[in-house]
Amino acid sequence: xxxxxxxxxLGEAADQLSRALPGHxxxxxQGRLTVTPPPDGSHxxxxxxxxxxxxxxxxxxxxVEWVQGLGLxxxxxxxxxxxxxxxxxxxxxxDAHVTKNYYAPKVFRMVVEVTSSNWSDDLYAKVECYAQAxxxxxxxxxxxxxxxxxxxxxxxxxxxxxxxxxxxxxxPVPESVGVRVELSADALLDG
Length: 191
Prior knowledge:
This protein is 25% helix and 30% strand. It has four helices and 14 strands. It starts with 9 loop residues before the first helix and ends with a helix.
């Protein structure tokens, strides 16, 4: 008896992995399938503290919202998408739905990643992907190298060199995000 095999597309493989690995983040970056394990406590707490800072800064009613785990469609390759840890988006972002749970980059004002075991994706592939997508600000709490990086104002699909923030420093969120706030590098790194 012959068995017919169906070769999966990257998108189909990503869907299957998402179902098989609950709590893991499955993304397609630059045509490459990536899987990130569930975040640890410090990772989650860093996002909680960032969210609280955005709330204290008056994000409600400012025209933007913060959302954790929102899918970002990446236009460079047809099946590429990312799921940033936290995003600041236009409040009407749902009008920019592209496919599945992914939204057009035009509604993203800032994306935030807190590095995990696959830290190189956040520091390399995502820098390129987010710049190509035109995301105005990309903030990385780089726990591997103990610093915070802020990329802003991409031009021609590339970010200029990032600003580096060490422990004890404050990280200013760019005005283009739509809310004025400074964040503690320590809180972003430690949670």
